[in-house]
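Appendix B, record 7
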Amino acid sequence: MDLTRVVHFVKTELKDEKTGHDFYHGQRVAHLASKLYLKDEPSAHQDSRMVAIIQTAGYLHDTIDEKICPDPSRVLAEIEALLVEVGFTELEIKDILFTMQHMSFSKNIEHHYQLPLSGQYVQDADRIESLGAMGIARAFTYGGAHGNVIYDPQIKPAELTSHAQYREHTETTINHFYEKLFKLEQLMNTVGGQKEAYQRTEYMRDFVNKFMQEWEV
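Structure tokens (predicted):
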């Protein structure tokens, strides 16, 4: 299946994005998700439609993210029409749209959504993108773009209990590691996702430990 139009759509929608949720993030999620799927399921190499579903949801997932999209409903309607034109079936479109609308960390704080298998790989890949060297870079990019301080010892990490709290509470970038990023490893759906998340989380813990050492100098 040719995803050229999907890629073009994402490039257009996210052309001005500068907080770490840009086209290249979507591209990495699409490629990592399909890579994890093919590695976990060697017999699935012939299932090109499953790979297309995974890659499409990976590319598109942030185009409707409330953090960066002022009108998710408008974009969602355009995506649904695009997927029909690209050649996805009604059931495939349903899986892609459900994944996009229910995969985020904040949407799953109060209620855990069971994603289709394709969505589980996309969700894992998106969360892995928040870990390791890439995760560190994206965390500070996002924090800077939203005016968050790097660290303030007077502001303690919050225990997140709701979507609204996650969006509205006062945050420092270092606290974000404790409030969300270090927890992602335990939320992986897939075998491949768990392995990659473990490695990247260890790298990130080393970074934060070193940061705290240097903060105290």
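Remarks on this record: The longest helix spans residues 191-215. The chain has a mean pLDDT of 95.
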